UniProtKB/TrEMBL annotation:
Domain ADF-H: start-end pairs: 1-132
Pfam families xrefs: Cofilin_ADF (PF00241)
Molecular function GO labels: actin binding
Protein name: Actin-depolymerizing factor 2
CDD domains assigned: ADF_cofilin_like (cd11286)
GO cellular component, one term: actin cytoskeleton
Amino acid sequence: MAVHDDCKLKFMELKTKRTYRFIVYKIEEKQKQVMVEKLGEPGQTYDDFITFLPADECRYAVFDFEFLTKENVPKSRIFFIAWSPDTAKVRNKMIYASSKDRFKRELDGIQIELQATDPSEMDLEVFKSRAN
């Protein structure tokens, strides 16, 4: 599975310049490559982000999660989310599962990985508990 240059470029902008809050990636089967599907503006929230994950299709996503430490120090962690809902077709799940590690290696700077099959597995509380 090829990775479109835009995927790495946009990720670097998120990581270094904080240009985006999140990026949703989609595998285009016909072109056999991972493409950027949606870019979240810096002002968008977690609630905005989850609306771009389809209920019955897999996606990869990167989310820049900002939080305060116990000492009230602002920090952020870059999460990689492998979204694979139970309702997705088996072929769709297989393609995403088999391409995940190679794609993730292309995105240098991911700090935390989440696998999610339904929204509860990537609830905001999950992000908070994994970020610390």
